[in-house]
Specification:
This protein is mainly β. The chain has two domains: 1-32, no CATH class; 33-136, Sandwich (Jelly Rolls). It has one helix spanning 2-15; strands spanning 47-54, 58-65, 81-88, 90-95, 100-105, 109-112, 118-123, 129-136. The strands form two sheets. A five-stranded antiparallel beta sheet has the order 1-2-8-3-6, with no helix packed on it. The chain has a three-stranded antiparallel beta sheet with strand order 5-4-7, with no helix packed on it.
């Protein structure tokens, strides 16, 4: 869905009086969005939206959890570094090694090095937990 919105925005940009640079970046139409925008209706799974991406596995994403957790026996083990912050709500992250449980509340953030196995143990059930995550390839 995020890709669709981006293509839609790019198509509008190309049809407008705006111009593109040599890298295909469109100038002129800037879309204003809000990280804390509510998600209407039920969420069967976490909502993950890529807000920006670039070279070197760089991406910024917004994640909305509503009482979600990682499936049993599932661990994230990413090749990129990850910086994650809770903007709203609360989440509990478990790191496998070193074994650690971290409760993140509004404004808390952590940096997870590449290949560190981690999982979401729990998120707020009475309000959306909104995360901001930045991924990048470490040197």
């Amino acid at each position: 869905m995020v890709g669709f919105r981006r293509r839609s925005w790019l198509a509008k940009c190309r049809q407008s009086v705006s111009r593109e640079d040599r890298h295909g970046v469109c100038f002129g139409m800037i879309e204003k969005r809000n990280l804390l925008s509510p998600v209407p209706g039920p969420l069967e799974n976490e909502l993950m939206e890529i807000l920006a991406s670039g070279s070197g596995d760089f991406k910024i994403e917004r994640i909305v959890s509503r009482g979600h957790s990682s499936p049993a026996d599932f661990w994230y083990e990413e090749k990129t570094s990850e910086w994650v912050m809770v903007l709203q709500g609360e989440g509990r992250i478990r790191l496998e090694e070193p074994e650690q449980d971290l409760v993140l509340q509004r404004g808390d953030w952590i940096e997870i090095p590449p290949m560190v196995r981690h999982r979401v143990e729990a998120t707020s059930e009475n309000e959306d937990t909104i995360w901001l995550a930045v991924h990048w390839k470490s040197k």
